[in-house]
Amino acid sequence: MAGPVVTLSFDNGPDPEATPLVLEVLRRHGILSTFFVIGSKLADPARRRLAERAHAEGHWIGNHTFTHSTPLGERQDAGHAAAEIGATQALIGRLAHPDLLFRPVGGGGRLGPHLLSAEARDHLAAQRHSVVLWSAVPGDWRDPDGWPDIALAQCLAQQRPLLVLHDLPGGAMRHLDGFLHRLAELGASFRQEFPESALPMQRGVATAGLDAYVMPTPAEGRIAWTAA
Ligand SMILES: [Zn+2]
């Protein structure tokens, strides 16, 4: 039986310790992935060079907010979309994938309306971004040695997993090579393209499913209640 078709992504970098290791392992396995970078890190020239290297090696670069702090659906300060998404996209510049990939901050990998505010949604649509979610979060940051077993189980439970790992220091990525070998032995193959189901907005066009990831504004909440 054919194994899962796995898409890998690496969030929260670039990092001088972890990103080169991840790039080296991916190169040896012949796997292309996406790095969802944090804008405040990209402002550091040494870290930016790592994103440039990833891009030059065929990986895609996506936007993962500027500060990676409160999930955007929980933000109420006007202007947060431009400050978090717009400023990061400006720093990504020519490294951007043509689909302008954006991954919201989940706060521990949770999916839900806390991911996006109405302001963020409107900014993403106006700038023709694509929103990239996920389907497997093994928690490598909290379990640097145990995550591969969790990730294997999560990947084998799906046909088309989109896995979130982190190019962060802490040692978890020392297990990436072994994890990829184990996945391959179990019949998995790898694709850089994202599964459709993980893309609730593509190039600014929202699917019907996007609403599940947008916090209703008080006004919208009233309208929905009245209509019901
Ligand atoms: Zn993150």
Structure description:
This protein is α/β, with parallel strands linked by helices. The protein has a single domain (5-227), classed as Glycoside hydrolase/deacetylase (TIM Barrel). The protein contains eight helices and nine strands. The protein has helices at 18-29, 39-42, 45-56, 80-92, 118-126, 147-156, 176-185, 218-227, and strands at 5-11, 34-37, 60-63, 101-102, 130-131, 162-166, 189-190, 201-202, 205-206. Strands 1, 2, 3, 6 and 7 form a five-stranded parallel beta sheet that branches. Strands 4-5 form a two-stranded parallel sheet. Strand 4 (101-102), helix 5 (118-126) and strand 5 (130-131) form a beta-alpha-beta unit. Helix 1 (18-29) runs parallel beside helix 7 (176-185). The longest helix has 13 residues, at 80-92. It binds zinc ion.
List the helices and strands and how they pair.
Blueprint (H helix, E strand, L loop, with lengths): L4 E7 L6 H12 L4 E4 L1 H4 L2 H12 L3 E4 L16 H13 L8 E2 L15 H9 L3 E2 L15 H10 L5 E5 L9 H10 L3 E2 L10 E2 L2 E2 L11 H10 L1
Parallel strand pairs: 1-2, 1-6, 1-7, 2-3, 4-5
Antiparallel strand pairs: 8-9
Helix pairs in contact: 1-7, 4-5, 6-7
Bound molecules: zinc ion (ZN).
